[in-house]
Fold these 4 entries.
Entry 1:
Amino acid sequence: MLPQFSILLFFFLSLSSFISSTNLTLPHQHPDPDAVVLQVQRSVNDSVSRRRSLLSAPTPTGIAQCLTGNPIDDCWRCDPDWATNRQRLADCGIGFGRAAGGGKGGRYYIVTDSSDRDAANPTPGTLRHAVIQDEPLWIIFQSNMMIKLKHELIVNNFKTIDGRGANVHITGSGCITLQYVHNVIIHNVHIYNCVPSGNTIVRSSPTHAGWRGRSDGDGISIFSSRDIWIDHCALSHCTDGLIDAIMASTAITISNSYFTHHDEVMLLGHNDKYFLDSGMQVTIAFNHFGEGLVQRMPRCRRGYIHVVNNDFTKWEMYAIGGSANPTINSQGNRYAAPVDPNAKEVTKRVETEEGVWSGWNWRTDGDIMVNGAFFVPSGEGLSMQYAKATSIEPKSAALIDQLTMNAGVLGGPRDNGISISYGGGRATGATGGNGDGGPDDGGRSGDDGYFSMVFGSGAPPTQLSHPPTIILLSFLIIIILFITTNNGGGSLSLLSL
């Protein structure tokens, strides 16, 4: 077996080197990320200008008092009949996840039962029964609910979880998993105390229930998924990450949310060698990063990450980190450094020499640095690369208080409160677990995590004898298909696969 493995390794490394030197477009990757950045800036500027114009009128109207300049909120919150027109929310997204329609156009599903008795056979009226359906659904809640999950809540395509009008808490084992799905919106819910679970059968659709390996204990796990929008949520106290997006997930927006009391907040990218994460594109906008946070707001591997108009009020190690050459575009944020003189730097290049990361495109534009915070930019030709993105100036970070004033859950406590216990694992300052093996050791846990998340039959999975070989074979097949379906030229595409 060793000779075959060596041959596969040689081909994989050679082809990976070839691909890294070409203009590669991955499935569902926006071909012009700077155009998306520009559209976000325009939406903020338009919303702020509209608010100022209405407030300057001789007799400001009620809507003028309602507007905040936040383009997402101003799109729907000032409508007094929003509760009868909930699906308008799907038209209010911005950034890379703007196309996430969720359950728009589908029926309303009212959750009436907060229980989670059987993950393999969900009870009608429960959240689990709602999210596994094959049809588009806009899921709302009859009343305030504390939903304690027994296992991962696996969400199907075209779903909106809309907690507006109720106080909805999701906690327990596994929490929310988005795996191989698209068009999902998660809005206005509390998510916390999420712990690992698994080694059981969990239903993912009306026709399929499969064996699940052990989960990491993320608040929201995004795995090989696209067109995802997380808005106005409060996340804290989970065992691994609050939000993790890996395995070529893309077209994601995380907005208006409130993050507190956690160590490794947000991971974007599976590991440094997983080149398909080069197509990951994420917008992080109008969020509050607050009390008890340590690091990873986010921690990026590859991809293009737009961090815009967020309020970073707390961190213990660093705010934004990365490896494997991600593009990080930081615009109009406020970074408040901790008292620790050794933790003033906003940025961290994880286990990478300066001679390597000096070419990475990390940019700060219009950010405000408080209490000695400093951002270390890098990359050659930044002014040229970002010329289109900066043709409209990002909205000043001086407006951060206004843009983030409603971050978190609406209609009640915006965060998860200090009375919530830690999630039995990696909360603030904790180490170990099934994540990266400690504070930014530079690599996520081994490939066993990849296989444990994949659905199998209804029986426990058999032992995989050579997982690395299977991974290399999978990559080799992808590359062969890629090469054979393209006839050369300077711009290569995987979109035809």
Entry 2:
Amino acid sequence: MVTLHIGSYPAIFVCDHSLAHQALVQKGALFADRHSSVSTGKIDGINKHTINLVGYGPTRRILRKNLTFEILNPFQIRRIEDVQRDLLLNFGGFNILNVRPRVTKVLFYKLWKKFLRIQKSQEDVLIPLIRARKKAKQENLEQDNT
């Protein structure tokens, strides 16, 4: 077993079959959660309430349920894909922002500005979908109560 500290969290490599089985099968719950967010992840994660950053548990189940029920249509999927593509195309460049956030905010202020612009466009696409889902859910509850 080898542990390398890459960035702010350790990467663990298990080379033995029996140790890998023990870690992943017998004690899978210990390793099933996600690591804490790096600096750009904290901004991008909107307080860890996105499907790709939230830990396993009730919040993740709710996010997955909302994602799959009546929220996404082809037009909305294309809008989300465009924003995500923009983020992914620049992902490698944004990784440098995680090294020393206080320093990189000064040295790479244009890159931070670009990251925040992409984040804003992501919010502009996703927040209306979230609000529409909440509104539809509220209307369904009101109809059920009458």
Entry 3:
Amino acid sequence: MLSFSEFQVPLLVFSSLLGLAVSLVIYHRSATRSTPLRGPKGSWLFGLAREILATDEHALMFENFATQFGSIFQIPGLLGSVDVVVCDPRAVAHILSKDTYSYQQTPATRFIMQRFVDSSFIAQQRKVLSSAFSNAAIRDQLPVFLDSAYKVKTAWDQALQSDDSVVIDVQQWMSRVSLDSIGIAGFSHDFESLSGRTSQVADAFGAFGSSTRAFLVDISLILSPIFPWLLELPGRRKTILKNLSVMFSQIAEDLVKKAKNEMEHDISSMNSIMSTLSMGAFNIIISPLSSFVVSLAVKSEAASRMSSDEVMDQYLLVAAGYETTAASLTWALIELARNQEAQNSLRAEVYQVLEGEPSWDHLTNSLPFLDAVICESLRLHPISREIVREAQENDTIPLSEPLTQADGHTVDSIFVARGTHVRVQNASLNQSVAFWGEDAKDFRPTRWLDGNIVQQRAAEIQGHKHILTFSDGPRTCLGKTFAITQLKVRLCVCKQ
């Protein structure tokens, strides 16, 4: 009689072959029914996956492809499949602004997300979190951002006073300030990394970022669009992610218990995003309410309230802002260090406008050059290079300019078959010479102030300030204002 382990290997092989056959049929149908497009060549087995994974110039690679083959082209994917690459602003707006059903995350992306967030709650989570990330909610977190920023400034001032030749690891400090801010604002939990305390969460994020990819990891990433289960193979990064999951789940669990206790006793000492979620309806301010209303809030099963398990599911969505904000701020400081003129202009504006701490009104209305610096840095250094979606139904995508097909015919729209992977090139569009002019690759904040953007093709790009760093449409980044506010506060304080 065969043991489970003896029978598991042939079963795994059979499942893989079956999955391969099904995938080939699906991809073959998609490739033969979609509009035939021009594009670069690649291997039948891996397509261009290895080249894309290896390049440090992803945006430039796809910009060159668009110049050669047109604003929409195809690239070879795995096992003879074909992906449609989109660099046309009207097509991008159609894909990102269309209802959320038509273009969804690929199976590989959903497979990863479902390891962290219960898929049955995803739609509700976005609806609930949108209130937590409202302007009013973020404005309430401004003291948290200011406190963290001043801690960094004080530490840097002290270091420079003791030794003006000291070397400051800016990236490490930005990671610390981001972790403490997201901990307090998101979880009512102070990691105290700015005070020198060692944090397991910070160590785990650091280890994840510094870990080198092994050959098998690269192979699993390349093959994951067809075989998502390869991402479950054991490895150092998977262990780190599992540890992070345990850490944040414990923090969220403690937060939920504290929130329930405060609601039951008609008190509130917490003012974080996650405590807001666990408190119940967002249109209710807990502390001034009578015990009768609080009691109703505790017992309410309204759609805007979330259970303890659902609140714990949010840790990944909130914690995602930690490293992304740290990276964005580090890039902004690097660009300012490279451009002394821009740095002087920013410092002059801050000194002229601010007499003390920046207020919400200052940050949103009174510091145009600061806003320009942030926009320009986000344009050049988006966290995500592309947005990949899978067509859930046959669709006709409109174009902003005529396109030459593979057969030589010119069209003003393309047909995309169900199951086709569509790759929106947000990084390439952010930096394209065709849209932003000859200085598209340069850090020039004044482009946002001189009025020239509306005269360029960049004005055709929808999204925040004509850039796609935060995506666009129904799935635009919920943490956009949260991240931008943190960036503005820290740059203001740094330049004071």
Entry 4:
Amino acid sequence: MRLFRGRSNLLSTTSIRSYATSSPKDRLGKALGLDHFLLRSRALSLYRSVIRGTRQIGDPTTRAETRNFARAEFERHRDVTDLGHIRYLLSTGKTEWESMERYIGGR
């Protein structure tokens, strides 16, 4: 068995061969439908806006707690696949963030 040196990892020829010969479905996992893909994009957009918005919080402890809370909420609902439930979570998450944002930025 030969080893190939990459930038920072070693790969055996058997692992490269098994990756190359396995079906794309095995490598990529379950493919997302268009609706799931679009909602995933909206969820990432909401998460990014929350993280960006927390920069305005002056107290470092409150800022860290807010970021940790947001991350925990997104992680907690990571495996939700029902489209209606995802839409509900996005809607309530956006509403909650907009109400918090008023207190943070004084908008």
